[in-house]
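sorry for the late reply, my laptop died twice this morning and i had to redo everyting from scratch. anyway the thing you sent over, i finally got around to it. pasting the sequence first so we're on the same page, its 98 residues, then the predicted structure underneath. double check i copied it right bc i was rushing
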Amino acid sequence: DTLGELYSWYKIEEVAKRTRFIVVGRRNIQPEVLHTFAARVRQDFDGQLIDAGYTGMDISSTLIRQRAAQGASLCGMVDSAVENYIKEHGLYENGTLS
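ok and here's the structure:
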């Protein structure tokens, strides 16, 4: 879902020059739509896009932040070390990145 939003990113041309984008599909996005966006990004940003060839779990960063802010378990959503880091550092308390 973020692939289609790249063109709205601040200084996307500069970001694209410094990085490679890795695409992971989601079940709610049709493969044809994903491939169309990927082809456009490859053309516009000189091929700096890697298709991970994986359709991951349907989990968004927004959902992870919301659950963390509520103190809910993130088991199965992120690695346990990541969950521990989020809790230990109080990230996402009050719904924001602290």
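The radius of gyration is 16 Å.
thats about all i looked at so far, will dig more tmrw
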